[in-house]
Amino acid sequence: MTSLALFRLPCAVIMTASLALPAAAETLRIGTEGAYAPFNFVTEDGSLKGFDVDIGNALCAQMQVECEWSAHEWGGIIPALNAKKFDVMVASMAITEKRQEKVRFSSPYYFNAMRFAALKELELDTATPASLEGMVIGTQSGSVAVTVLQEYFPESEIKLYPKLGEAFLDMESGRLDLVLESKFSIGDWMAKGTDCCAFVGEDFLMDGTIGAGIAMRLEDENLQTRIDDALAAIIANGTYDDIRAKYFEFDIRSQPRIVSDLFKG
Amino acid sequence: MLDLWLDYKDLWLSGLKVTASLTLLAILLGFVLALPIGVARARNRGLSGVLAYGYVNFFRGMPLLVLLFLVYYGAGEFSRDLRSLGLWWFFRDAYYCGLLALVLNTAAYQAEIIRGSLNGIPSSIREANAALNLTRWTAFRRVLFPIAIARALPGLGNEFILLLKATSLLAIITIFDLMGQARFIFSETFDLRAYYVAALHYLVLVLVLEWFLRRIESRNAWAA
Amino acid sequence: MELLSLLTPGPTGWGDELLIGLGMTLGLALATFPVSIMLSFLIHRARNSRRRPVRYLAQMHVSVFKSLPEILTLLIIYYQSQVVISWVAEYAGFDSTLSISPFLAGLIALSLVISAYGSEVVRGALQAIGKGQVEAAQALGLSGFHCFWKVILPQFWRHALPGLGNLWVILLKDTSLVSVIALSDLTHVAALAINTTREPFFFYLVIAAIYISLVILSSWIQKRLERRATRGVVAGGRAHA
Questions:
Q1: Could you tell me which chain A residue has the CA closest to the CA of C201?
Q2: Is there a contact between C187 and B66 if contact means CB atoms under 8 Å apart?
Q3: CB 3.0-4.6 Å disulfide test: which of A15, A51, A103, C207 passes with A215?
């Protein structure tokens, strides 16, 4: 009997995931990462939570569809979307030209600015290519921060982590001198009781970044219209601000500075 | 696929170098560690026997991935203590941590191979040693050990190949070996072929290694 | 111990999630193992096929999956299979929402890998039984199926058990790789727990202990099965070994 009970779980996984045919009520399959607090993360009770998840659920409610969430590795999340493992990605992905060749984005739902955090013992007061020469900087593999580091900080050593949380672990142990990532994620991490590190320098966006967008496959033009309408609706009726206030005490839809203004010339 | 290789030629080559150096260092250091453990396993007496038994079962019992995380992120948690012990320069480096995990893992497997070949030596040889009045140390050093190693070669060769494949896990702790480069190129291009290019590298590496091992074995009179 | 409270079940501890992760790990290994064994038999037969292309294909399967790192096989299967399914669906002209779950991808990839090694276990065991048995069965007029089911298979387990036990342990540990494609197995749950608790040493030590216990338990069961399979066999009585 025990072996039967053990089998039930995986069988259910195969059935729901691989044989999910369109049901009567429309379901929207939403993918996210689940390791990017406070935007999307898995809690102690095993469920997905965070700003992205709340926004996604609000959009589904607005569109009167069922949300079906799944978590995916960040490094393969765009291929997973294009391979139809899910239909819509709400994962705080910054809209960039390179990504727009692969997927279609909604209008931005917030601006996810990057900022450096450094070990306090380094006593840095600026974060410029010159002041960070020779230092070890970590970030998540496949994030826009990688491009910034490659382009503007060629004299620093770059370390890439599959999950952002692992970069934070290495920061706390002192393997990294700095982390470059979303200032919100870093802020969330520092608020959880680390005193190893502090923000340094200003926050900024990638050149050409329009903000974080909700992604879908290139061919799903109709879906984009529906998502954009729903997004505009929840911003207009105050739902968006209610959700935002749960996570952030400040506006996250104003545009910060662009990276090339900061580090060029 | 050739274009993807040529576009990132430098990355692939440096990845190849890291994979090769990790594999070679790990197999050699692992052998050095495995020798005493394997001998203790074969004797299977006293405290050394118990310790060797514990070592082998501990490190063969857990997935290498878990051992890797345990060494790398586990050491990170104790960075303050390691710093005061003067060991942090070693544990700070992902390459050294990964190498340590590989060595601990492969030593457990190599020790079992060495034990097997020591235990498999025919008793007539031991009797001959006794008849010649060889001391235990001389008998071990000049007779049993060379035979055991010769007999262990096929098994060790096999372990060599398994270890080469196992180095790919180190990509997860920020090492840019072949796998690490493939992951990086995949995240840059979203091009699945990056993994196929990496796969070809591993195929060729294993084929070359197998050819090389066969050549050694064909000269080995003691191969079981 | 403060740390132990992290393992309690319920909304504040990770005990229940780890248990579900353990179920996922065991479920994947238990589902993959029979598939791998059947595939091993097929590959063994194909390697001895009279048709040359079949033989080559089987040989290639063994060489490729014994050479590729398991994690690479897994990633390729996970992403490529989805592309293939979409392509087939498009070609057949239906809109597909079929999706390969990490579980299924893990099952396929690990079966491919384990069967490459398994075909050699099968070969070794069948060789140990020897051709004489088959010839005797044929002389008695048994059909091919009966010969396999009544003569070969009962003896097969005895010779194959050590090799199969080895494969099972390899498989059990290789399931941890599926955590990399976000299946919530034991290793993945540990990573999630560490994300919020920041206790990597403790959690990885706990799951290492779980894996080690599973391996010890497996080898205990294997020994019992071996004793069962060899009952009635006179020690040293047959000169096959």
A1: A169
A2: yes
A3: A103
The verdict on residue C147 lying in a domain is yes
For A70-126, the pLDDT digits (tens) are 999 898 899 889 888 899 999 999 999 889 999 999 999 999 899 999 999 999 999
Q: Which residue of B has its CA nearest to A174?
A: B79
Interface ipTM: 0.92
A114-205 architecture in CATH? 3-Layer(aba) Sandwich (3.40)
B75: contact with A, CB 8 A cutoff: yes
Q: Compute CA distances B13 → B8, B56, B176, B201, C69, whole Å.
A: 9, 35, 11, 10, 18
From chain C, which residues contact A within 8 Å (Cβ)? Answer: 11-14, 16-17, 20, 23-24, 26-28, 30-31, 75, 78-79, 82-83, 86, 96-101, 103-104, 180-182, 184, 191-192, 194-196, 198, 200
Contacts C198 to B, Cβ<8 Å: 77
Q: Specify the range with the lowest mean pLDDT, choosing from A146-155, A156-165, B153-162, C86-95.
A: C86-95
Angle formed by the axes of helices A51-63 and A239-247, nearest 10°:
170
pLDDT of residue B42 exceeding 50, the answer is yes
Query: For residue B182, what are its two tokens?
Result: 């493939």
> Do the chains contact at A159 and B174, CB–CB below 8 Å?
yes
User: In this complex, is the C-beta atom of B66 within 8 Å of any C-beta atom belonging to chain C?
Assistant: yes
- Domain of C40: which CATH number? 1.10.3720.10
CB contact under 8 A, B187 and A170: no
Token pair in block for residue C16: 């229940």
Which CATH number fits the domain A26-111+209-263, given the four candidates 3.40.190.10, 1.10.3720.10, 3.50.90.10, 3.40.50.10700?
A: 3.40.190.10
Nearest to B174 among A161, A173, A174 (CB): A161
What are the chain A neighbours of B92 within 8 Å (beta carbons)? 173-175
C150 part of a folded domain? yes
Domains delineated in chain B: 2-218 (1.10.3720.10)
Considering only CB atoms, C200 lies closest to which of B62, B73, B198, namely B73
Instruction: Mention every residue, 6+ apart, whose C-beta is less than 8 A from residue A258.
Output: A204, A205, A206, A207, A209
Residue B54 in contact with partner chain C when CB distance is under 8 A: no
Asked, for residue C125, whether it belongs to a domain, the answer is: yes
Same fold, A26-111+209-263 and A114-205: yes
A3 — pLDDT class (breaks 50, 70, 90): very low
Taking CA C94 as the corner, what is the angle to CA C92 and CA C95, rounded to the nearest 5 degrees? 135
- Residue ranges of E strands in B76-150: none
| Contacts by A95-98, CB closer than 8 A, 24 or more apart | A95/A209, A95/A210, A95/A211, A95/A212, A95/A213, A96/A144, A96/A147, A96/A206, A96/A208, A96/A209, A97/A208
Element (H, E) at A94: strand A88-94
- Structural domains counted in chain C: 1
Q: Which of B79, B94, B172 is closest, CB to CB, to A162?
A: B172
Domain boundaries, chain A: 26-111+209-263, 114-205
Which residue of B76, B174, B190 is in closest CB contact with A160? B174
Q: Which residues, at least 6 apart from C24, have a Cβ–Cβ distance to it below 8 Å?
A: A9, A10, A13, C103, C183, C184, C185, C186
List chain B residues with CB under 8 Å of C216: 57, 61
Give the neighbours of chain B: at least 3 Cβ pairs within 8 Å: A, C
Write out the two tokens for A130.
């010159």
- Please name the residue of chain C whose CA is at the shortest distance from the CA of residue A23: C97
Domain that holds residue C43: 3-229
Tell me which residue of A254, A124, A116, A94 sits closest to A186, measured CA to CA. Answer: A116
Residue C240 lies in a domain: no
Q: Rounded CA gap, C35 and B20, in Å? A: 34
